[in-house]
Write the structure tokens for this entry.
Amino acid sequence: MCIRDRYKQMLVYFDSPQSGSMFENLRSDWKIYATTATSSSEDNQAYYCFPNDQVNSIHIKLCLGDHFSISWMEHLEEGDLSGRLHDLQLGVKKRVSDSHVKEWGDFRVSNQPITDFFIRANQSNVKEVPKKFFLGSVNTID
């Protein structure tokens, strides 16, 4: 895609155990900025697991997210979108305490405005997730 000039720049949020291993050799001249939930050698923690795994009052019997994905989505919902991607990333790093959030690739992309990559959903359609769901986590490998 890079060689054929199929994109101007790319932002990747990658969330899985050892997710950093996917980007260790990412070249900065590819204009890709990637951020990962973990380093290349650590696991991450799942959240919204049973009994907090309800969608439309139905237990779906799986975990709905992990600390990294929940943190960046909630940070976007709560925060000021007038900043830069780097500001968003710093906010996510502060929230995630159970893994080492990493950044890879072309850091010039992180200087772009958040609104170049994200837009806020209509607030009347966004439902608040009660903080009681952050009761605990499980290792995503388990």
User: Anything to note?
Assistant: The helical segments are 67-78, 85-95.
